[in-house]
Design a protein that fits this description.
By secondary structure, the protein is of the alpha+beta class. It has a single domain, classed as Double Stranded RNA Binding Domain. Helix content is about 25%, strand content about 30%. The protein has 4 helices and 9 strands. α1 links the parallel β3 and β4. α1 packs across α3. It is globular. This is DUF4136 domain-containing protein. Pfam families: DUF4136. InterPro entries: DUF4136.
Length: about 180
């Protein structure tokens, strides 16, 4: 998993932390389609409902960025999970993702060394991981803490805000999406 991969930033707002990690081997400018990894079933119906809400918001956000949902050989697989307890993560200090993307349009075998750091996340951390389906490895993950400390609570507005916070760090549009949409106006 990418937790052993990288960390570009871990920022805080109030008691909430958020950040993202990326892999130097990600082909971010080539991904066009996505699908979700099915999670193991939960016994708690409230938890299942929260996961469905999160999935809906993730799908909406990726589609806003031009990615197409596909059940047939998607480029990216999306995994998401809420950790209800405190969480110690291993992350990595890196150049900001946006800056790295501009300078590295094509993935290469040569890259900077990963510099490990420890990240402490408080109760209710939402972790979203994007996996390169073809390469079978994680290429990006975003996370935010303080989403929900109680699995039985439901706040669709808060879940939407958590997904937005995470995907505000993944500002990558589908290959050709901006060009296609600028020509149509």
């Amino acid at each position: 998993m990418l937790l052993a991969g990288t960390l570009s930033s871990c920022l805080g707002f109030g008691n909430h932390k958020f950040g993202s990690d990326y892999s130097y081997s990600g082909a971010f400018h080539k991904y066009k389609t996505f699908n979700f990894i099915t999670h193991a079933s939960e016994n708690d119906s409230a938890t299942l409902q929260n996961y469905e809400v999160i999935k809906k918001y993730i799908r909406e956000r990726l589609e806003m960025q031009g990615y197409e949902y596909s059940e047939q050989k998607p480029d990216l697989l999306v995994s998401y999970y809420i950790y209800y307890n405190d969480l110690n993560m291993k992350g990595y200090e890196q150049e900001e993702f946006d800056i790295w993307l501009v300078n590295n349009e094509e993935p290469t075998a040569e890259h900077e060394a990963y510099r490990p750091i420890k990240v402490y996340m408080t109760q209710g951390t939402l972790l979203v991981t994007l996996l390169d389906h073809k390469k079978q490895n994680a290429v990006w993950q975003g996370y935010t803490s303080g989403v929900m400390a109680d699995p039985s609570s439901e706040s669709t507005a808060y879940l939407n805000r958590a997904v937005r916070t995470i995907f505000d760090q993944y500002r990558v549009f589908r290959k050709g999406y901006l060009r296609d949409h600028s020509n149509s106006n």
